[in-house]
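Chapter review: from sequence to fold.
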Amino acid sequence: MNSAAGDRRKQRQRVAVGQRCLEDDTYKGMRGQSRSTLIDRRVREDWAASGSTSLYDRALVEARRILETHVPEPLSDEVAAKLKSLIRVAEDELGVH
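The token string follows.
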């Protein structure tokens, strides 16, 4: 094997080892982030036995739950004042009082 071919082979080996490490780290991070409550990963029989709900139906239930229970954090005084100022300017431009 000539030296150029040997160098390319070594480079591929380093990349392959690096990719494997990256894949392991990525996989570990993904497992912690990929815990959707909407996607049903049960076997089909269990899914069917519990009502066969579609992703759309589960998303709709979750959206309604969020809308009914979410309490947004209050705006800071600075942000509230800036919004009021912007609204006043818009109302003046539109002649709304």
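Two observations follow directly from the output. The first helix runs from residue 3 to 33. Residues 38 and 56 are 9 Å apart (CA to CA).
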